[in-house]
């Protein structure tokens, strides 16, 4: 800004004291200080606004670059995927179909019957069977760990010893 030394400020102060007078000098100095502060704040606001605009412009340019790069990558991936799909389809259509004699006699009725049997067996396995029925017919009452099963079926371990 303006290069004002101590001697220049003293000369300006003496001239202002002579021209303005000692009664009005404090008011004028206060007004000059407030105007100088306002000017500095205005300049700082302008500087920050300009820097914000520059950063915003840089971000927009960066966004455009990233977007073009993403579009090119997307196009490359789509092209390679379409080529690979075409290769797979060509390979699929070029291979001869092999008819196995074990599969050829299976009908949809057989498949539906097997599916019904599987669902029925699964329902029997997973359904809620009462505990008294399981106990009477030897079904599992609860889940036991591998160590518990080994201890239960170990020969000669009729005594129930515990660690505790």
From TrEMBL:
Part of the twin-arginine translocation (Tat) system that transports large folded proteins containing a characteristic twin-arginine motif in their signal peptide across membranes. Together with TatC, TatB is part of a receptor directly interacting with Tat signal peptides. TatB may form an oligomeric binding site that transiently accommodates folded Tat precursor proteins before their translocation. It is found in: Cell membrane; Membrane. Residues 52-79 form a coiled coil. PANTHER family: SEC-INDEPENDENT PROTEIN TRANSLOCASE PROTEIN TATA, CHLOROPLASTIC. HAMAP family: TatB (MF_00237). GO terms for cellular component: TAT protein transport complex. InterPro entries: TatA/B/E (IPR003369), TatB (IPR018448). Its main location: membrane. The Tat system comprises two distinct complexes: a TatABC complex, containing multiple copies of TatA, TatB and TatC subunits, and a separate TatA complex, containing only TatA subunits. Substrates initially bind to the TatABC complex, which probably triggers association of the separate TatA complex to form the active translocon. The lineage of its organism: Bacteria, Pseudomonadati, Pseudomonadota, Betaproteobacteria, Burkholderiales. Keywords: Cell inner membrane, Cell membrane, Coiled coil, Membrane, Protein transport, Translocation, Transmembrane, Transmembrane helix, Transport. It is a single-pass membrane protein. It holds the Pfam family TatA_B_E. One of its GO terms (biological process) is protein transport by the Tat complex. Belongs to the TatB family. GO terms for molecular function: protein transmembrane transporter activity. This is Sec-independent protein translocase protein TatB.
């Amino acid at each position: 800004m303006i290069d004002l030394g101590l001697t220049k400020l003293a000369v300006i102060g003496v001239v202002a004291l002579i021209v303005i007078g000692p009664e009005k000098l404090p008011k004028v100095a206060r007004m000059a200080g407030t105007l100088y502060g306002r000017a500095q704040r205005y300049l700082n606001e302008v500087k920050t606004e300009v820097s914000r605009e520059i950063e915003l412009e840089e971000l927009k340019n960066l966004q455009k670059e990233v977007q073009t790069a993403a579009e090119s990558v997307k196009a490359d991936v789509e092209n390679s995927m379409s080529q690979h799909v075409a290769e797979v389809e060509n390979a699929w259509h070029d291979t001869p179909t092999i008819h196995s004699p074990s599969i050829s006699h299976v009908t949809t009725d057989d498949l539906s019957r097997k599916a019904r049997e599987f669902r029925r067996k699964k329902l029997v396995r997973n359904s809620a069977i009462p505990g008294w029925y399981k106990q009477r017919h030897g079904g599992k009452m609860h889940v036991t760990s591998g160590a518990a099963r080994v201890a239960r079926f170990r020969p000669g371990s009729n005594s129930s010893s515990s660690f505790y």
